[in-house]
Write a structure and sequence with these properties.
The complex is a heterodimer of chains A (335) and B (279). In chain A, 74% of the residues lie in helices and 0% in strands. Chain A is mainly α. Chain B is 74% helix and 0% strand. Chain B is mostly helical. The two termini of chain B are 23 Å apart. In chain B, 46% of the residues are buried. Classes of the chains: A mainly alpha (335), B mainly alpha (279). At the A-B interface, helix 1, helix 6, helix 7, helix 10 and helix 11 of A face helix 5, helix 6, helix 10 and helix 12 of B.
Chain lengths: 335, 279
């Protein structure tokens, strides 16, 4: 166990280097020089060409762009290791501050989404696995399949048209997190207002993952039911309920648990497209806007942070697997 | 039809749903191929006298804000979506098979390095990465194909690696080795044909995914340039006229939905046919 753990932790180092290297290379692929872009933005305030060149040189020096690329990479990695991602090119605020503002919003959105997904999907999957290929199971398979293939941005648009005002029902707000002036409400009023704003985006984020998870939990339970130990449990005279709950269901939960580990990164990354459509200032939108305005420090920070978080959660889900399933041992059994 | 693939096809054709999905998939091919013969309108033909017309006998799916025929734009858009889907998946299937074969067959250092590379790619938020690269390289259909191809190969690579690891210990491979077959011969003649079915299944789902990615990118304005009709960009345009022109949002969304569903059903049917145990 300890050997496995140290090996696993040591292997994180090359992966970390790979992650930072790719991020760095992708950013350097960009043809536009941020210094020149800054100049364009400030055009009109500078009178002559010479002054312009001087400004470019100054900006390049400020951001270390005048040094060789390997030096730039190493100094950047050094700063990443101390969680110093620098300042945004756009508004000169620390990148971490911007992320700290966006992260809780995405987290709120996705925790609610994930909670709903798990609460509906697992019972749904279990029920359809209890009587496989019945009429109800076929119907549910069809519904889940349709939900699975519906593009969420299309649904988002239709929901906005039909439930968010226009010529039709005006039930839900379609943009942002709070109505104007909602800050003056008492805390429960504010909470309600935020939840009301979250209905449509959460709906769009939920159904895809929900249909995936319901299908997944049906499949895993069906597979467990076919195992020998379930037959043994029946053979020794246990009731169907007891076999299902105590023997089959517990084993079917194992893959679900690890799935949760792999879902963690998307929890923090946010959905670019849904946050963009509903104007929610979360991580997805922050990243999208940073890409649009070539705000390299923000793009690099988001890519690195989410990649590192994914790395950690992959490790966690492996360890979780090890804890809940004693059959699995990662020690090498010879070759 | 006989043999392994014959059996798979037989199993696949047993289900009515699979047959329907396959018909839709092939119909879409013909739509893309025969686009100029299917509609009398040009996808970019402006007609400012007929802006935002509701669907009628002249314009089956109405017209958009510049008087362009929506159906013509969707028919031509299928060319973009399908070619992105197939070329992108083709690129990453090739990369995945190559990389996975190296890791699975040679093991050792190859496996170590390639497994790290796969882990690195898995860790990145893919859509964000694609978005960033496209923003820097400029939106074009070729860039989309390449970026999807270069970022999404990990699934196939892991699949092929696993199959190769499993297969290379089998007797028929050892027999071939004893008879003096080279590494390439063994991989090409013995291992790859046996690993191809799961790769095909994965590629089918991959096409659906790639089409979804392309439409999402076009929707965000990062896909194909605006003058080229694409399902995603038609839908994105629709956002501005939603209150008055419902058909603008409905038609492209349905096109995307039907296509993705058809590919997913074919993928699922193939998977069940290849590995009946999973059903």
């Amino acid at each position: 166990m300890l050997r496995y753990l140290t090996r696993r932790l040591l292997l994180l180092i090359p992966t970390f280097i790979g992650i930072t290297l790719i991020t760095f290379v992708v950013i350097r692929l960009a043809p536009g020089d941020p210094a020149a872009m800054k100049l364009q933005a400030a055009q009109g305030t500078i009178s002559s060409d010479r002054a312009a060149l001087e400004v470019i040189a100054q900006t390049r020096k400020l951001y270390g762009l005048d040094q060789p690329i390997s030096v730039q990479y190493i100094s950047w990695v050094k700063r990443v290791l101390t969680f110093d991602f620098g300042d945004s090119y756009k508004d000169h605020r620390p990148v971490l501050e911007k992320i700290a503002e966006a992260l809780p919003i995405t987290l709120l959105l996705n925790v609610i989404t994930l909670f709903i997904i798990y609460v509906i999907a697992i019972p749904w999957g279990v029920f359809s696995a209890l009587s496989p290929n019945s009429v109800l199971d076929r119907l549910s398979a069809l519904i889940l399949f349709i939900l699975y293939s519906l593009p969420s941005f299309w649904i988002a648009i239709l929901l906005i048209v039909y439930l968010g005002g226009g010529d039709h029902w005006n039930l839900f707000p379609i943009a942002g997190l709070m109505s104007d002036g909602a800050e003056k409400l008492p805390w429960h009023g504010q909470l309600l207002n935020v939840l009301w704003h979250l209905v449509l985006p959460v709906l769009c984020l939920t159904y895809g993952g929900f249909s995936f998870l319901a299908r997944f939990s049906r499949a895993t339970l069906l597979e467990v039911i076919q195992q020998d130990f379930v037959r043994t449990a029946y053979a020794k005279g246990l009731s169907r309920f007891r076999v299902m709950v105590h023997h089959a269901f517990r084993n079917a939960l194992i893959p679900q648990l690890t799935l949760l580990g792999t879902l963690l990164p998307s929890l923090l990354g946010g959905s670019v497209i849904i946050e963009q459509i509903f104007s929610i200032p979360g991580m997805g939108r922050l990243g999208f806007e940073a890409v649009l305005s070539r705000d390299y420090p923000v793009v690099m920070a988001i890519a690195t942070i989410s990649a590192l978080l994914t790395l950690v959660s992959l490790l966690l889900s492996d360890l979780l697997y090890l804890c809940v399933d004693p059959r699995i041992r990662f020690e090498r059994k010879g070759k | 039809m006989n043999g392994y693939w014959g059996l798979i096809w037989k199993q696949f054709f047993k289900s009515r749903m699979n047959r329907c999905a396959l018909i839709i998939v092939s119909a879409l091919f013909f739509v893309a191929l025969l686009a100029p013969w299917l509609t009398s309108y040009e996808p970019n033909q402006y007609d400012l006298d007929s802006i935002l017309l509701t669907p009628s006998s002249q314009h089956w799916m109405g017209t958009d804000d510049q008087g362009r025929d929506v159906m013509a734009r969707l028919i031509y858009g299928s060319r973009i979506s399908l070619s992105v889907g197939f070329v992108a998946v083709g690129i990453y299937v090739l990369i995945g098979i190559f990389v996975g074969a190296l890791a699975g067959y040679y093991g050792g250092w190859w496996d170590m390095v390639i497994s790290r590379a796969i882990e690195v790619m898995l860790c990145f938020p893919t859509f964000f990465l694609i978005l960033a690269v496209l923003a820097f390289l400029g939106p074009s259909i070729y860039n989309i194909m390449i970026v999807i191809g270069v970022t999404q190969w990990t699934g196939i690579a892991r699949l092929v690696r696993g199959e190769f690891l499993k297969l290379r210990e089998r007797e028929f491979v050892q027999a071939s080795e004893v008879m003096g077959a080279g590494d390439f011969w063994i991989m090409w003649k013995h291992l790859l044909p046996n690993a191809l079915a799961p790769v095909l299944v994965s590629a089918m789902f991959g096409v659906a995914d790639a089409i979804l990615t392309e439409t999402s990118l076009s929707f965000l304005g990062f896909g194909v340039p605006p003058q080229i009709p694409s399902w995603g960009s038609v839908l994105s345009q629709a956002q501005n006229y939603m209150d008055i022109a419902w058909w603008l949002a409905l038609a492209p969304g349905l096109a995307i939905f039907v296509t993705i569903t058809a590919y997913n059903i074919v993928g699922e049917g193939l998977r069940d046919a290849v590995d009946p145990h999973l059903k």
